[in-house]
């Protein structure tokens, strides 16, 4: 059954100065409708593009890839952050930055407390972390989960199948049997498009 | 909250790259190279993730140094060597790192914790690294240990 929620009061910040008179409605794939203001619209390129292109009046913009249980926290997140300063563009290769501290790993632990509590509601096991990732701090959370992990751990954490190509060269048992046979000296022929067996993993 | 059928591999490449760019290159390679025969492995092989490798950060940010370095020596570096243009190393592992593969595009080397007494031998005429220094390296940065500066 469709429900209508006015999420404009869920913001934890004092955002009245940015509130505009224009609001639009969005609807999840299971019929849940939210009325959002322009501050929220600006944070979603998808919704912004749709609202610019479509003048649906009071008809909600359909979001066929989002279900209500995910749309509700997304709206809550956008309401909380709608007055945040715009993020700086990502530096594509700051490993080349000569001023970067050699010992300092890239950081993705600078997630504010509100965001940390927000993201705790979503898990890999339920798959909801990936549902929310498009709109939130999920990227940093996933990066934190991967940092320092071996590929075998990442494979297990995210249920990634090994799917050995060809003659099963990459099957785990094949890898174990080849441990110690990978060349450790100069080898210019070691590159190639398909993965080589990993004796350490 | 209801179960979802969305998995990591359902994310578009654009989003996966966004995640990976929040990691150091060595973390991307350690976590994803050889993880599967598909997209994640291919993404990890992108040149951007092996152009500059800071192998010092491994030593200083983990307690499992030996097993991680072994994996880099035996598996990762022999596969991505062609992409590497800049290496950041410590004298302790420098010789092994530089000899484990042929980095044909390597031109920049940063040696951290360089100690004159122990490390000058790498620049001697009979050094196994002399050919690399002579024919490839166009930019060499030496970061001297604080004790030697005093």
Automatic annotation (TrEMBL), chain A:
Residues 175-193 have a biased composition (Polar residues). InterPro entries: SKP1, SKP1-like, SKP1-like_dim_sf, SKP1/BTB/POZ_sf, Skp1_comp_dimer, Skp1_comp_POZ. Belongs to the SKP1 family. Residues 1-23 have a biased composition (Low complexity). PANTHER family: SKP1. SUPFAM superfamilies: POZ domain, Skp1 dimerisation domain-like. The lineage of its organism: Eukaryota, Metazoa, Spiralia, Gnathifera, Rotifera. Residues 22-83 form the SKP1 component POZ domain. Residues 99-108 have a biased composition (Basic and acidic residues). Residues 1-34, 82-108, 163-201 are annotated as: Disordered. Keywords: Ubl conjugation pathway. Residues 137-163 form the SKP1 component dimerisation domain. This is S-phase kinase-associated protein 1. It holds the Pfam family Skp1_POZ. GO terms for biological process: ubiquitin-dependent protein catabolic process.
Automatic annotation (TrEMBL), chain B:
Residues 5-53 form the F-box domain. This is F-box domain-containing protein. InterPro entries: F-box_dom. Pfam families: F-box. It comes from Rotaria magnacalcarata.
């Amino acid at each position: 059954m469709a429900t209508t929620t006015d999420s404009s009061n869920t913001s934890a910040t004092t955002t009245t100065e940015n509130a505009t008179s224009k609001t639009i409605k969005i609807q999840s794939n299971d019929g849940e409708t939210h009325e959002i203001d322009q501050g929220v619209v600006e944070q979603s390129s998808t919704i912004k593009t749709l609202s610019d292109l479509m003048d649906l009046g009071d008809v909600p913009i359909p979001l066929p890839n989002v279900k209500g249980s995910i749309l509700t926290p997304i709206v809550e997140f956008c309401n909380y952050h709608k007055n945040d300063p715009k993020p700086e563009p990502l530096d594509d290769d700051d490993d080349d930055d000569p001023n970067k501290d050699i010992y300092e790993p890239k950081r993705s632990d600078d997630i504010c407390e509100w965001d940390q509590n927000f993201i705790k509601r979503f898990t890999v096991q339920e798959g909801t972390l990936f549902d929310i990732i498009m709109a939130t701090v999920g990227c940093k959370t996933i990066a934190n989960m991967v940092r320092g992990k071996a590929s075998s751990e990442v494979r297990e954490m995210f249920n990634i199948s090994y799917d050995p190509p060809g003659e099963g060269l990459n099957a785990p048992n094949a890898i174990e049997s080849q441990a110690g046979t990978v060349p450790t000296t100069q080898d210019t022929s070691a590159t190639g498009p398909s993965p080589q067996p990993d004796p350490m993993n | 909250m209801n179960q979802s059928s969305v998995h990591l591999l359902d994310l578009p490449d654009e989003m996966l790259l966004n995640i990976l760019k929040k990691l150091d290159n060595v973390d991307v390679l350690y976590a994803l190279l050889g993880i599967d025969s598909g997209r994640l492995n291919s993404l990890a092989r992108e040149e951007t993730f092996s152009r500059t490798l800071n192998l010092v950060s491994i030593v200083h940010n983990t307690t499992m140094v030996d097993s991680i370095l072994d994996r880099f020596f035996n598996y990762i570096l022999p596969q991505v060597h062609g992409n590497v243009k800049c290496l950041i190393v410590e004298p302790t592992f420098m010789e092994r790192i530089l000899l484990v593969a042929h980095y044909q595009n390597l031109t920049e080397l940063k040696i951290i914790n360089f100690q004159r007494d122990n490390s000058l031998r790498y620049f001697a005429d009979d050094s196994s690294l002399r050919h690399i220094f002579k024919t490839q390296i166009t930019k060499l940065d030496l970061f001297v240990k604080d004790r030697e500066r005093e």
